[in-house]
Amino acid sequence: MSHIRLGIISMFFSLLLVSQAWAAPSSVVQLVIRNHSFEPQTLTIPAGQQVEIMVKNGDVFPAEFESSDLNREKVIPGGTTLPLYVGPLSPGSYRFFNDFHPSSTGTIVVVPPKR
Length: 115
Fold this sequence. Notes:
Layout: H1 2-23, E1 27-34, E2 37-39, E3 42-46, E4 51-57, E5 63-67, E6 72-76, E7 81-86, E8 92-98, E9 101-111
Parallel strand pairs: 1-4, 3-9
Antiparallel strand pairs: 1-2, 4-7, 5-6, 5-8, 8-9
């Protein structure tokens, strides 16, 4: 009975590790909000992969990363850094903006992975 229990426990932890590996983003990129502007204004990421965008708000006021193209909306309080996950995405361009300052815009360019 103990061998069966040990096997079940081992299988559970193996599945847990595999599922965490699948969920982990394959790339991390940095995006800074400063003076109500995105830096850089264009991010380039690989197609077909989940990407973590670490959004740092260097302003004292909150900002909102919003994108209809990506179906994402996230408030970033002033002076904080929060992750935003996108993808996997097809090659193309995806626009985003700061909903609190709509003139602050940016683009995510998704390129085919290098072979």
